[in-house]
């Protein structure tokens, strides 16, 4: 029985769990400080992003832990999709949009967070691929053994014994 979970992915998730509250706190404090200087459009966008990232990150980390440790493909696939689509583009938006008046501390924590997300996208992809291939092979072998058990033994005639009259 081969272990399919990924240690590098699990380590990244572990450190991400401790980094996220730190990232959230710094981002909220900096948002509070620069809020009066932002345009109304960016105020709305940043508040929406903070709510979206907060909710998505909690769900994403839970799915990553369950999917990786318990070797569950649907949960790990959900983790991979939540990392790839809402989280990574949002963090890259926060990192590269100069209209947000980015501070150096803010840029530093966004770079670290985007590095976590980028690594997790790659690690989850390779882990998912390995899990799916292994589970598909197990399924095929199980089906093959089931068919072998149903097949009649060699040398047994399909005609009933004693019907030679």
TrEMBL record:
It is found in: Cell projection, Cilium membrane. Its main location: membrane. Part of the tectonic-like complex (also named B9 complex). It is a multi-pass membrane protein. PANTHER family: GEO07735P1-RELATED-RELATED, TRANSMEMBRANE PROTEIN 17. This is TMM17 protein. The lineage of its organism: Eukaryota, Metazoa, Chordata, Craniata, Vertebrata. It comes from Urocynchramus pylzowi. GO terms for cellular component: ciliary membrane; ciliary transition zone. It comes from the Eukaryota. One of its GO terms (biological process) is non-motile cilium assembly. Transmembrane component of the tectonic-like complex, a complex localized at the transition zone of primary cilia and acting as a barrier that prevents diffusion of transmembrane proteins between the cilia and plasma membranes. Required for ciliogenesis and sonic hedgehog/SHH signaling. InterPro entries: Uncharacterised_TM-17. Keywords: Cell membrane, Cell projection, Cilium, Cilium biogenesis/degradation, Membrane, Transmembrane, Transmembrane helix. It holds the Pfam family Transmemb_17. The chain crosses the membrane at residues 13-33, 45-65, 77-96, 108-128. Belongs to the TMEM17 family. The gene is Tmem17_1.
């Amino acid at each position: 029985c081969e272990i399919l979970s990924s240690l590098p992915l699990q380590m990244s998730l572990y450190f991400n769990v401790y980094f996220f509250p730190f990232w959230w706190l710094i981002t909220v404090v900096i948002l509070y400080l620069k809020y009066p200087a932002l345009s109304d459009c960016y105020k709305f966008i940043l508040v929406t992003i903070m709510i979206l990232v907060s909710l998505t990150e909690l769900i994403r980390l839970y799915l990553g832990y369950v999917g990786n440790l318990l070797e569950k493909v649907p949960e790990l696939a959900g983790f991979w999709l939540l990392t790839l689509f809402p989280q990574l583009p949002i963090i890259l938006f926060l990192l590269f949009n100069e209209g947000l008046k980015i501070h150096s501390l803010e840029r530093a924590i966004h770079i670290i967070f985007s590095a976590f997300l980028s690594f997790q996208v790659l690690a989850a992809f390779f882990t998912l691929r390995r899990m799916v291939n292994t589970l598909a092979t197990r399924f095929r072998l199980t089906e093959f053994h089931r068919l072998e058990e149903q097949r009649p033994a060699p040398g047994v005639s399909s005609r009933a014994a004693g019907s030679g009259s």
